[in-house]
Amino acid sequence: MADEVFDVLILGAGPAGLTAAYLLTRDSPSKVVVLEKSPDYVGGISRTERCGDYLFDIGGHRFFSKSREVEDLWREILPNDFLERPRSSRIFYKGKFYSYPLRSFEALRNLGLIESTLCVASYFRARLFPVRDPHSFHQWVANQFGERLFRIFFKTYTEKVWGMSCDALSADWAAQRIKGLSLATAVWSGVRKSLGWSGGSSRGGVVKTLIERFRYPRKGPGMMWEAARTKIVAQGGRVEMGTAGEAYLWHADRALWEVRTRRADGSQESWFARHVISSAPLREVVSAVQPTPRCAGQVAGLGYRDFITVAIMLNARPGFTDNWIYIHEKAVKVGRIQNFSSWSEEMVPGQNSGCLGLEYFCFEGDSLWTMPDEQMIAMAIGELETLGLARAGQVVGGRVVRQPKAYPVYDDTYKSVIAAVREEFAANYPALHFVGRNGMHKYNNQDHAMMTAMLTVRNILAGTPKYDVWAVNEDAEYHEEARAGEEAKAGGNTQGNRNAA
Fold this sequence. Notes:
The chain is built from 17 helices and 19 strands. A hairpin with a 2-residue loop joins strand 6 and strand 7. The chain starts with a strand and ends in an 18-residue tail after the last helix. It has helices at 15-27, 68-77, 104-111, 113-128, 137-145, 147-162, 171-178, 183-194, 222-234, 282-287, 296-299, 340-343, 373-387, 414-428, 436-440, 446-462, 480-483, and strands at 5-11, 32-35, 48-51, 54-57, 82-86, 89-93, 96-99, 213-217, 238-240, 243-251, 256-263, 268-278, 289-290, 304-314, 324-327, 336-339, 354-362, 395-408, 432-434. The model is unreliable at 197-206 and 474-501 (pLDDT under 50). Strands 1, 2, 9, 10, 11, 12, 13 and 19 form an eight-stranded mixed beta sheet that branches. It has three domains: 5-46 and 65-80 and 220-300 and 411-483, FAD/NAD(P)-binding domain (3-Layer(bba) Sandwich); 105-200; 304-408, Polyamine Oxidase, Chain A, domain 2 (Alpha-Beta Complex), CATH 3.90.660.20. Helix 4 (113-128) packs across helix 5 and helix 5 (137-145) crosses helix 7 (171-178). The protein is α/β, with parallel strands linked by helices and 501 residues long.
């Protein structure tokens, strides 16, 4: 590769990386290569895996965005393979199911008159005496919902997901994930639904946590990203699988990046490019940049939460039709359960079959992460029986998939670390562009990850940082929706709403 120079080298073939590659090869004569660590799958955490005739995702991936431009790109890449699906999700708490989003009368009935009264009183107390300038997830949610509802519906699940106290988790995460939603919003939505009032609010005014319909590729989100890879190659780009970046050398005298990689077979190569777009984990990339950045020591402290999916294949349809269920029970380790036949019937081989994805949150190297697959599958089956959601006699197979660095951790130091990275790289490493969830250490959905790639491509093609990519936040109110991105410049308002779970 020593004699070949690419215009743009992209690290990672997830939603952000493939979006950038697709747009660059579609809209310009750019010479583009994508390097993907996995030898088998594109799509990153939005991939779809196969076990025999069963398909399953790593988590659940709704296709819904407030950005018309993102929606249009989805349709362009995958024009004829979307299903429109009703959202159906519930919370399982103390042996009872609660619709999510909340249905007021159902919640009152399940909690009982006394508990419901105490929750409402707790809410009004929080509104009268809120914590000023909340710093933790606990403080932020208690301000919005009251202390009692925080403990019932947020504390157990959130601490299971993150493996840390809600007092140590930054309020930023809550504000970005559930901005615009409060108890009053949820109750009013539930009342309207209970009374059959559809309302007339526009798509742009919907709190994303409360949306009731979404689109989904008929064979999972991986279908989208496999189609993107095919089109990138047809447009003249390259996608190199099983190729992991190990070192990133900035040659300032030549204004070139050298990316040293290792393939799955152990062979090493060097790739040269004028620009690098990175959706790889920020901690790993910054620590491997040469000359060593001053912020490298700070970046080493960034944390990640890891994730395990245990796919359980059944010879019967599950006894529930939810897309997923949040498990707020301390008696089991599972945090959320996906029902893939409710996402699409094409995810399973027939009418008398089902596939459940049990999601376990952990840290790489802990007892869950290192548990043998057979033991993990047996535990998952036992927990399904404990919850009453499936019987062991229905199980025809199981598979374990471990996903490292699934969630960037928002602790009380991450914001200052990101600020240091942004400042130093803008000044000293001008042609390295961070995009996507792990690339920016931001809890982005795939549509937000795609938008960061879209704006980065525009910056590269314009030859100047015209758009503030870092302003694209979780569930941003994209100005692109109306004017194709022209108002997403530095300083534009991009705050919005996002699902708490």
